[in-house]
Amino acid sequence: MIATLFSGGKDSTLALHRMAAKGKRAELLITMISENDFSYMFHKPNIMQTKLQAEALGIRQIFANTQGKKEEELEDLEDAFVENGVTELITGAVASTYQKDRIEAICKRLGIECHSPLWRIDPMEELAELSRDYNVIVTQVAAEGFDSSYLGQRIDAEMIEKLVRSTRNIGRICCSRAERQSRSCSTRPCSERGSRWGKATRRRRELSKGT
Q: What is the mean pLDDT of residues 123-131?
């Protein structure tokens, strides 16, 4: 069973598509539902919106609950792998060794082959691909240099330039800061399923702006 650890964000979505292009198509999306808003491991904002993404992707999804306690939440993740017979795992790890090392340790213990196709990707390369091929919407801001003006906005050339400018001022790599933002990512535009997702994301953008 090839599974993707799926948060609905830009990285896990891009990772599963990159692996599909290499012939490794995800058969299952594993989405962790954490009780902890500040989990060290798992994304939480708008996590239930991933149901729409799974539908658009046409991939079966399961949800696994965790209290989100540091280190203990890894046991819940391991249980999800075992219960669903995972033999290969795709992750959207980009720069966090904390997350990557712990996931790989679980995979090694269970004999699961782990794929992290975005690991150490050039930040500008990733942002360029996302802006060109995906609809990535900012759903939460929680990092220095970001404000509410980003909420509900799509990552496009204009936003990338804005990120680069603010990065120069703060002196950090823009995608390292972007990593701390919560994003929901749709699939590439696709027939009726893609249209349903588009309507949902437009409505979320309106809600984010308070309209």
A: 89
- Domain at 2-115, CATH class: alpha beta
Q: What is the pTM of this model?
A: 0.78
- Dist. CA 132–CA 175, nearest whole Å: 16
H or E element at residue 161: helix 157-170
User: Domain boundaries in the chain?
Assistant: 2-115, 123-208
Contact 27, 36 (CB under 8 A): no
Give the residue from 191, 205, 202 showing the smallest Cα distance to 57. 191
Collapsing DSSP states into helix, strand and coil, what is residue 96? coil
Query: Which residues lie closer than 8 Å to 58 by C-beta, 6 or more apart?
Result: 193
Closest by CA to 63, choosing from 54, 196, 71, 22, is 54
CA distances to 29, 158, 178 from 202, rounded to whole Å, are 24, 19, 21
pLDDT above 60 for 83 = yes
Tokens of 79: 């249980």
Cα 178 to Cα 74, 77, 126, 166, 169: the distances in Å are: 24, 25, 11, 11, 15
The edge-to-edge listing of strands for the beta sheet with 28-34 is: 60-66, 28-34, 2-5, 88-90, 113-115
End-to-end CA distance of the chain: 43
